[in-house]
Amino acid sequence: MSRFLVKRHQSLVPYTPGEQPQDKTYIKLNTNELPFPPSPIAQRLARLEASSLNLYSDPDQKILRETAAQVFAIDKDEIVFTNGSDEALNYAVMAYCDETTGLVFPDVTYSFYEVIADLNKVPCKTIPVKDDLSVDVGDYKELHRTIFLANPNAPSGLALKNEEIEVILKTNPDNIVVIDEAYGDFNDETCIPLIKKYDNLMIIRTFSKSYGMAGGRLGYVIADKKLIADINRLRNSGNPYCVDRMAMMAGVGALLDRSYLRSCIDKIKAIRQHSADRLRQLGFEVTDSAANFLFAKHPSYPGKDLYLDLKENGILVRHFDRPRLNDFIRISIGSMEQMQVFFDTLQQLLEVHHD
User: Fold this and answer.
1) Fewest C-beta in 10 Å: which of 19, 23, 72, 350?
2) How far is residue 196 CA from its own chain's centroid?
3) Range of 166's domain?
4) CA distance 283 to 297
């Protein structure tokens, strides 16, 4: 770091994204991207909009908000879009946390939460998940803090039911509960209907996963109108043109093409189930993931060794070198062809490992 960096940021430890090596061609099963391209309608609208990149995008996001409002059966003032969901998470910390109202989240979850708490100099507390890596709802009653819960959680893929989330909302009426549904489209239910019932609920979602637009950087917040007004106050004070013209129209196309979205989700769910079954047949312990990835460990093959051996063979998975997680690998659900290569390679590695 330079000698000019202000003291409050000198101890900041940045988020570590999934690796993107360029040394050779890999099968990427490490960053939970969709293995399919975006909707053809999304692509076509984005291409048409490219000719207008000389003009600023609409800071009010009118066409995108109105389209989303129809799709999600909400009011257009109950949604706002951001430059990826990470920007929305940061705004939520800025809006609802300070030196007296801290942030709380599970000790096993999306590691970006801790980074943005540190960035904003907000006190944060982690609550241990249970031995099976699930969240104990009873631990989140009457916390008097802003609560972040990824649902489904990462990297376990485990999900809470809406009735469990309602317990948390009811027992924290004076604090915001942020439900991060980055992987929500792969789950069997969403909290979106609950925003009409709870004014302390904020749902943050993304187009990076189910819509196949990770490179488009498009996230969104769904919540009570007053909460959306809070986020807009911050957005318009820092990045009012946060959604570029091409991403905005790609988002419109993706939202309109419901059949394509459903097809992609159905494929991922089917491949997820098939892959989980195969992993269990090979002796792996696998969590019951409701996301587009699997979290698995083998009783005699250390997670880091398996990660490195797969990488050596051209397959990237994610390994978390920390207590409770270091025996696991996280495997993004790829196409059936990609998963076949993964399992062929895995079978060979297991045979060598057992010899």
Assistant:
1) 23
2) 23
3) 40-256
4) 9
Q: In terms of C-beta density within 10 A (0-12 exposed, 13-18 middle, 19 or more buried), how is residue 110 classed?
A: buried
The structure's pTM equals 0.95
Looking up tokens 């031995």 gives 131
Final residue before a domain boundary, out of 230, 256, 282: 256
User: Can you list the positions of beta strands (E) in the chain?
Assistant: 27-28, 79-82, 103-106, 124-127, 146-150, 177-180, 201-206, 219-223, 285-286, 293-297, 315-316, 328-332
pLDDT at residue number 355: 59
pLDDT score at 325: 95
End-to-end Cα, the chain, rounded Å? 48
Burial 157-173 (b: 16+ CB within 10 A, else e): bbbbebebbbebbeebe
13: number of CA atoms within 13 Å, CB side?
A: 5
Q: Over the stretch 5-14, which tens digit does the pLDDT of each residue have?
A: 888 888 888 8
Residue 89 class from Cβ within 10 Å (0-12 exposed, 13-18 middle, 19+ buried)? Answer: buried
In one-letter notation, the amino acid at residue 251 is G
